[in-house]
Task: structure prediction
Amino acid sequence: MARSLVTIEDLSNQEIEAVFALADEFVAKLGEPGRPHRVRGRLPLAEDVVIATLFFEPSTRTRLSFESAMHRLGGHILTSADPRTSSAVKGETIADTVRVVETYAELIVMRHPWEGAPAVAAEFAEVPIINAGDGSHEHPTQTLCDLYTLRCEKGGLRDLNVVICGDLKHGRTVHSLVYGLARFGARIITYPAKGLELPQHVVRRLRDEFGGTWVRADQIDELPSGWLPGNGIYTVPDQLSLGRGQAESVHEIFARHSPFKTIDAVYVTRPQGERRREGEAGAADYPVVDTSFLKERRYRESRVMHPLPRVSELGYEMDVDSRAIYFKQASYGIPVRMALLAALLRLRPGLLAEGPAAGSAPPHVSRGGLTCGNEACVSNQESERRYLKPKFKLLGGDPLLVRCHYCDHEATVACVGRADRKKYDTHASRVGSIPAEELVLFASESAAREAGFEPYRTPQRAG
Ligand code: NCD
Result:
């Protein structure tokens, strides 16, 4: 099975380092004198290779940088950039599209509005799939560019203090980035616009799976003076009380408490208006990063980053400020994507381990009980439901916590059932004694009963 990059978790830290080392090589060989982030010319590593980009959503940087990267490797590229001219408008499924396109190309780069669409592509294609952004879910190649840029600018990632501003709810670049930062031992300080905080499932993962310490703003005063979390641990002051127009601004909190004497980077993101559903919080009181935001001493050595495009959250006066590195960040997209393509296409063997990504245990396939609660999830789309079954990773706990295999949204399961016996139990501990192929998960007891399941034990009547 080919290795794909669907989420940033598909690459181990060691593999990310190997990709970065190859990007360093490209920068050294092709970088312009004095401006090494701008690569020019070609290295003929992929002369016999064709890749395809399938973009079902607008893009400038990501698609063009993949195309530039492939040309600079001496390879060839097919592009489908306008969803109106692809067979998706005729109702073609993702599974069928990629099984056709893989006969034309050795790798597929896909951007899609449905969360988990590239995961479906990776399930059905034999060639590597690269996720170039799926809805609000993830954008792992942007994260590789972001981490690489930070590493070039700051010499490493461990112990960096990184403020992440803006729409942390819908921003897919943010969701991949926080995992990457946490894994490399940076600290994250969130500064969301009001109502656009990091999703709960992202916060939970940072805390429970990445060994993070979650520090709320109202706890900051209780911390011992000079306290800083140790390596590999990030700190997130309570997002809810950090939004503009709320009790305190990020500056007030920093002024009162000093663990963050220096801020190494401020990562700015735009309001993702196109992802907002009716009735959801808008972009009111959206944090704007400009010279006045950055006037304190702690920002003196900061790097200001943005995945771009910007709207009005990043002042144009910043363009002439030496701390602004967002155009450099975009340029690094070429050597990093060249290195990623070389790794996944095995043009340079040994960069990535063989076989499936580490830690990718087969998920539970829903047998009709549970569906994903995220309406943007690929598993909830009419065309894809014809062949796709919801799948979940079982995370444990009681009640049982599960994560959608496609979009990573989490849900608790009200009861677990055993298909061959048509029995269910509200205690998650029952899972251990149910064979995997007989396990059925239900969001509610009534759903279990409606499916014809009976409780294992008749509940005791009170009194
Ligand atoms: C981002 C994206 O598409 O998610 N852009 C990019 O790929 N550099 C950020 C955004 O659109 O806000």
In short: The pocket of N-carbamoyl-L-aspartate is lined by residues 61-62, 133, 139, 142, 172-173, 269-270, 307-308 (CB under 6 Å). The longest strand covers residues 50-55.
